[in-house]
Design a protein that fits this description.
The structure is a single chain. The protein has helices at 8-69, 109-119, 127-134, 138-151, 169-189, and strands at residues 125-126, 154-157, 164-167. By secondary structure, it is mainly alpha-helical. The chain folds into two domains: 1-68; 109-184, Winged helix-like DNA-binding domain superfamily/Winged helix DNA-binding domain (Arc Repressor Mutant, subunit A, Orthogonal Bundle). It has a three-stranded antiparallel β-sheet with strand order 1-3-2.
Length: 190
């Protein structure tokens, strides 16, 4: 079998193409690493700027705290010339007091039940109305109303939202029973 050896020009062209491919691969890998390091450098610089801003904010807060703790009763240096002027009378600024909301005093569960029953004797009310009037939390009033509904003291109207509560006959009898008990106890203690 006879193998033909290609011309020298063909061999030289193949070698040049191979070397060109290696050079291209080398240049591509270098450019890729440079661009990757630029991306990493950009991310690092953004992170560094973020932490720098955080440090500046902390420094400002620390300076404010130090100013609060600084005592102004320190002596004024003698090299500062004092101007003798009339003392200025400082009038404190009058800040209007916010309207005071009267809250119900701490009550036991029986007192809460009685207060709710008294509230809903004239008309039905929502739990929000009861909460605002008694000054108790939403959760507390919700639990109380559920217990009173289960006990049959109030009736929940589920036809409209928010639900409203009205007093039942059992509630009226309990309310009248506690009123009579309070009236019989009051004269004895007097």
């Amino acid at each position: 079998m006879i193998v033909e050896i290609p011309d020298l020009d063909v061999i030289f062209g193949l070698v040049l193409a191979f070397i060109g491919g290696l050079v291209t691969l080398f240049v591509y890998s270098r450019l890729k690493s440079i661009s990757a390091s630029n991306d990493q450098t950009k991310a690092d610089s953004e992170r560094l700027e973020f932490y720098e801003r955080q440090l500046i904010d902390l420094k400002i807060k620390l300076d404010a705290i130090n100013l609060d703790n600084l005592s102004f009763s320190q002596e004024i240096p003698q090299n500062i010339v004092r101007n003798e002027e009339k003392p200025v009378q400082v009038v404190p600024e009058q800040v209007p007091n916010p309207p005071r909301v009267e809250r119900a005093p701490n009550m036991s569960s029986d007192n809460i039940v009685e207060a709710v029953l008294r509230l809903i004797t004239d008309r039905s009310r929502t739990s929000r109305d009861i909460q605002i009037t008694l000054g108790k939390s939403r959760e507390h009033i919700s639990r109380t109303m559920k217990k009173m509904t289960d006990d049959g003291l109030v009736q929940r109207n589920t036809n409209a939202k928010p639900y409203s509560y009205s007093i039942t006959q059992n509630g009226l009898s309990r309310l009248s029973g506690t009123s009579q008990t309070a009236q019989t106890i009051a004269p004895q203690t007097s």
